[in-house]
Structures are given as structure tokens and as C-alpha cells.
Amino acid sequence: MDAIEIQGVTKSFGTVTAVNDLSLRVPEGAVYGFIGPNGSGKTTTLRMIVNIFYPDSGIVRVFGQEVGGDRSSQIGYLPEERGVYRRMEVRSLLEFYGELRGGRNVTADVNAWLDRFELSHCAKRKVETLSKGMSQKVQFIAAVVPEPKLLILDEPFTGLDPVSAEVLRAAILDLRRRGVTVILSTHDMNTAESLCDYILMIYRGQKVLDGTLESIQEQYGNDTIRVSTAAGIESLRELPGTETIRDLGHVQEIRMARGCDPQDLLRALVARTRVNSFSVTKPSLHDIFIRIAGHETEVEAAQHA
Amino acid sequence: MRKILLVAKRDYLQAIRSKAFLFALIAAPIIGGGSFLGLAVMKAKPDIQDRRVVIVDRTGVAAATVIEAAAERNRDDLLDKITGRQVRPRYIFETAAPGDANPNTLRLALSDRIRRRELFAFVEIGSDALHPVKVDNPDKMPESSRVDYYSNGAAIDESLSWISGAVNDGLRRARLTQLGVDHSKFSDVLGSTKLQTMSLIVKDEKTGDIQEARKKSELEGFVVPFVFVMLLVMIVLFAVGPVLGAVAEDKMQRVFEMLLASATPFELIVGKVLASVGLSLTSSAVYVIGGLFVLQGMAMMGLAPLSLIPWFLIYVIAEVTVLCAMATALGAACASPSDAQHLAMLLFAPVLIPMFLLTPIMQQPNGGLALSLSLFPPFTPVLMMMRQAMPSGIPMWQPFAGLIGTIAWTLAVAWAAARIFRIGILMQGKTPSLPELMRWAVRG
Is A139 close to B257, i.e. CB distance below 8 A? Predict the structure, then answer.
């Protein structure tokens, strides 16, 4: 059974259509990444899954059950605009959120998670006295106590230092190993590439990509070259057969024009400078994102002009 | 229901442990008691500075009798009968000849003396004041028939009543003199009698004896309803006051989205209302039990209207439910806690407006105005409570009719509030206008 099944869902606010005829399936036990620019409809879709918003049309099913039923005990939700009662003590807060969702005593679960995140010494402290990173960990615990069948995380890594981010990443992967389905909304393409089994890109309320990273990259073929040269970006100026060049510092990423032979491009480059490395590869998720969102933005800008 | 109770428990414990609630709970009776103490201090240290009053007598005969009446009043009222201390200012009357010139010239001169604080007031007795013309509209009374009082004092100044009594007494003396009544009979003719208020006679159910009526204080009929109403309003403000700002603050800190994934807006709003009802019942228990102990300690338990306490609690619950639901909805609709503060007056109108109506309703508790206003659901808890606490009482059907209206009103407000809350709670950046709020409530 799919953890989530969305069929032809549309949601509008006044004259703005936030989500337009969206359909998707999230397999149980997978980590499913939602990507898309700001305002594309990601959060609206997540809110419909957790039953905060109701779709104008279409069907949302979570573990086979349609919108309207009380399924909140199965879903842990960490919203992007997160906030908790700041004047409560950490333990009381977590027990309140856990009991509200789970309907049972969650003291043992709370203790286990506080231990795991090395926050046991903060259990009696008020949330408002915690650092931002600690506060975010507490909010994450509030979403996973008691352990949900479906965990929805909207930008969970925002504002975390690398160490805390790594702890959180490990916790997410651990939950997946235990069979929890995870939906992860993120702007960080590296996170999506490394953590997600499936990736969905929403743009202007519509699905534009859906599948595994490999299947998505397959759609674009081996049209990307990663190159490192002695002269750097300057050696790539007006190089024939290139469509776009993305400077990553020591390495540049070239998207080849349709029909271009990479051997011709290598020859032209060798004629200009010394080539340290040259590899033909599939486009990164970041590049694919830019191709979709960036291109449309350019078209829109041109239309306005 | 479990989620509602969980939300209610959290909000209740959070509020009851707050310093603000404990402070308000303790401070209110202290402030209330302090104001009574202030009144007592003011009474103990009255303003007893002499007050000089000029009489401009156009009758030619009234001034002397007015001065004579004032002198008698000074003699009788100046000192406390028990302590012998002066408790009122002495009024010193003098006359000013009206003269033939423009009357306004004299009035201006006397007014200037008042402004320079040489005089307290001046009274101008019209030439026909002893036998004024009969008119239907007192405002159309000709100047010659009037007695005009000029002063810088407030209209409710006790001096006005004192001087009015002395002037009327003096005018009556002048009329009696004209009628040829012997001067020595004046005190008999003009003496006044104070009415003693008594309780109604009751029959002892056990013995069948008819019990003696007891003397009632003039304040007794006023104090009980006043205390009930003040207590009701105070408890409602304590319980509901913080809700508006707290919801707006929680909204600003984005607390609700995570909660809404676990509980419906209806469960959240009902939980908050229950918490406020719990707070109000806690305050009520403290004040009612405390009040009964005080009355028992003062051997005044007979004054305690025990039969009204259940009604008091019903009205507290109804008022808190309505206002807390409104506060939650308005707080959810506001963009910031400061916006919420601006709406506080609108929120508390159902308890504040009846406060301005207390005097006319206490004067005629069974009049048409009192009945219709107390059956108007938003005002029912405060006004019906006060009418029920008045010594005259009200027909039994009225509180029940009021209660039905109040329950219907409470359900309607809670329903609309839940719809506003659901829409407003995730909106950021803009406080909706009143028409928008109405649209949310109606269309959802």
C-alpha cells in the first residue's frame, strides 16, 4: 500500500491556484523529497496531507484513508514555520505534543529521544532558554514522539550547524530503517540527492518531476561536463557547443548544446589551456532545478519586458 | 474529547501557574478593599473649610429667612452627633443688593469673586420665586420665578444639595411668615422625618411564629447586587483578558501549525474555552468561599444570598465561554499582539456596556428597559444577575428565559469563532477588517 496517494488535487486561495491538479504516490517506507522554488505549492500540499487544509477538488489518501478521518496519530509533522510554546519546560512540552497526537503516555519515548540528541540535561529548562539549534532538535522530537508511520519534515535542516544536521540526518535514516515513511521538503539539492529515494518537483502548483534521482537524470541524458582547467572559467568563454556554464570555483559545469560531441569540446578546450580533469556526466539535481525554474523565470521576465 | 481536555489542561495549568494570574487573584480584593478604605479615609477627613455664599434676593424678604434656615442647618449638621467632630463645612451666607443696574454686571462681579476663590457660590432668588408661575416645562420657567445657583463646583457636589435645602427651607419660612404663621411654630411645620427601611415580615415554617422585621441598612439593597456584578465582571476579565493577547502571541510565534496537525481547530478552541472556564471557576471558588468566611466571621451570614450562587456560576460560565471563544477567534485573526490589544474594547463590550446601565436598572429593576436589556443575550449574565440580586427580585421565568437566550447566543458565537479561528490562525501579515471577519464567520 502507498503511504500517500494524491489524485488530481487542486487548492486555490482566492484567485491564486496554489496547487493545480496534482497527483502523486509515495511508497511506504521511502524517503520522498519535495523540491521546488518558494511559493510553488510544496507547503500547501503538505498541509493538505496533514489535514490542515482541505483540497478544493481531488483526493488525498494517507495509508488508504481519505481526508477527514482522524489519522493524526499516524503523522508526525514538523512545519517550516515552526514554533512551540516557548514558556513550557522541554519535557512537559514534548509530553504534551506526544500525548496530543499519540493518545498515550510518551514519557519513555521522550526520554529516549532526549538522550539520543544529548538534551537530557535540558529537560527541565524552558524552551525559550535553549539555543536555536537545541530548540530545533526539540521541535524535531515533538514531531517524532510517539513514532509516526509517516513523518513530514518541512525544511528540517534550516539553521542547523553541520554537527546537528548530521545528527538529524542519522535520525531520519534510522526512522526509515524502522519503516517510517518520510516526506522531506527542502531547498537544498544536495540533501535531496543524498537522502531521498524519490524526488518530486512542484513548480507553480504543478508536478514537473517525479521519480528516483536516476530516472530524473535519465530524462536529461549525459549532457553535462565537469571540467577543471589551468585557466579556470576564462578558458571556457565562447567555447563552441556550450549552452550554459556554471562556475563552481575550481570546477566548472558545462551544459552541452543539443547534438554537440564532447570530443569536439575537449579538443577545443585543450587548444586553449591545460585540462586537469574532464568528465561527461548526468546533470545534477541543482542543474535540473535551475533548468526548470530558471528557464521559466527567464521566459516570464521576457514576457513582462 | 481527549484532545480537548489535553489542550484545556495545558492552558489551565499554564495560566494558573503564571504570576499574572496569582497577582490578579490576590490584588483584586486588595484593590477593592483599598477603594473602600479610601472612601473611609475620605469620610474621616472631610473638607471642612468654610464656604461663603452670597444671596442676591430680588424678593426683598427671602434672604433673611434663607440665612436663618442655613444657620439652623449649620448648627444641626456641622458636628458628628457621636464624636463631636466637625464633619461638614460651615456655610456662611451674606447678601448682595440686586441694584437697578444691568443684572449681568453684578453676576460678573460675583463670578469673578468665585474665580478668585473669595466666594464658593452665589444664589440669585428671582422676584417671583416665593410664588412662581406654573409652567408645564420647567425649562421655560421665567427668570423672575427661578432661583439660580452659580458655582464652580461639580453638579453632583454635596454643597448643591445642602444649599438647595437651605434655600427651599428659607423660602418656605418666608411664605409662612406671609401667611402669618407664628415664627415659633416653624420648626414643627417644617420638620422632616426620615423613613426607616425594614425587611419584610416572614413566618417561621417550624414554629409558625411571625418574626419581627429587622431594620435594613440603606446600602443593603445596593451592596448585594453591586458586589455580585462586580465579582462577575472581575472574574470574567481575569479569565478572558489574557486569552486575546496569548492567542495572538502564539500565532505570531507559529505555535499553531504543529498543533493543527494533531488536533482540529474546533478541538483547540473548545480546549481553550474550557481552560478559561476552569480559571473562572477557580477564581469564583476563591472569592465566594472567602466571602462567606468573612461574612461568617462578621456574624453577617444572613446577608449572604446563597440561593443566587448557582445562578452566579451559570452566568460566569456563559460569559466566559462567549468571550473566550470571541477572544480566541479575534486573537487568531490578528497579525500581532498589539493589534489584539486594539480589539480588547470590542471584546469586552458585553460586560462593559451593562456597567454603564447599572444605575437606571437599579432604580427600576422591573421596568421595561431593565427587562428588555437583561433578556438581550450579550447583556443577560451581568444585568439578569443584578436584577436577581435586587431585594425586589424578579419573576421566576425571566432568568430561565434569559438562560435559553444565553445558551443560544453562546452556541452561535462558538460556532462562528471556530470558523474565524480556522481561517485566521495560519494567515500572516494582515489583520482582517470587520466585514472580512463577518464573511469568515458566515462562509467559513
Answer: no
Give the residues across from B205 on adjacent strands: none
Compute the average pLDDT of residues B326-337: 81
Facing B258 at nearest CB: one of A77, A87, A99: A77
Using alpha carbons, select from A35, A36, A37, A47 the residue that is nearest to residue A9. Answer: A47
Omega before A146 within 30 of 0, i.e. cis:
yes
Task: Find chain B residues with C-beta within 8 A of A84's C-beta.
Answer: 255, 258
HSE of A206, CA atoms in CB hemisphere, 13 A: 5
CB contact under 8 A, B261 and A50: yes
CA dist., res. B275 & res. B313, Å (int)? 15
CATH number at residue B93: 3.40.190
C-alpha cell at B128: 417671583
pLDDT (tens digit, 9 = 90+) per residue, A260-278? Answer: 888 888 888 888 889 899 9
Mean pLDDT of A242-261: 84
Please name the residues in contact with A172: beta carbons below 8 A apart, sequence gap of 6 or more: A31, A151, A153, A156, A182, A184, A195
Minimal CA separation from A203 to chain B, in Å? 22
> Which residues have C-beta within 8 Å of that of residue B162, sequence separation ≥ 6?
B73, B77, B88, B91
A100–B3 C-beta distance less than 8 A: yes
In a domain, B63, yes or no: yes
Distances (CA, A) of B186 to A249, B65, B164, B175, B176: 115, 11, 18, 11, 8
C-alpha grid cell, residue A206: 504543478
Give A79's contacts in chain B (Cβ within 8 Å).
254, 257-258, 261
User: Is B382 within the bounds of a domain?
Assistant: yes
Q: Which residues of B touch A81 (CB under 8 A)?
A: 254, 257
Instruction: Name the pTM for this structure.
Output: 0.71
Which chain A residues are closer than 8 Å to B6 by Cβ? 96, 99-100
Q: Give the Å distances, CA to CA, from B287 to A71, B241, B293.
A: 44, 18, 10
Number of Cβ atoms within 10 Å of the Cβ of A118: 11
Contact A86 B2 (CB under 8 A): no
Between CA A69 and CA B196 the distance in angstroms is 70
Same domain, B259 and B153: no
3-state secondary structure of A304: helix
Q: Please check whether residue B278 lies inside any domain of the structure.
A: yes
Note whether B228 and B300 are same-domain residues: yes
* Chain A residues whose beta carbon lies within 8 Å of the beta carbon of residue B261: 50-52, 72, 75, 77, 79, 101
Query: What is the extent of the structural domain holding B98?
Result: 50-188
Query: Which pLDDT band, with edges at 50, 70 and 90, does A300 fall under?
Result: very low
Secondary structure (DSSP) of A3-36:
EEEEEEEEEEETTEEEEEEEEEEEETT-EEEEE-
Q: Residue B234, CB half-sphere, CA atoms under 13 Å: how many?
A: 22
For residues A281 and A266, what is the distance between their CA atoms, to the nearest angstrom? 14
- Give the cell for residue B270: 473548545
Q: How many CB pairs under 8 A join A and B?
A: 62
Q: Which residue has the cell 536529461?
A: A220
Q: What span, in angstroms and rounded, lies between the C-alpha atoms of A192 and A216? A: 13
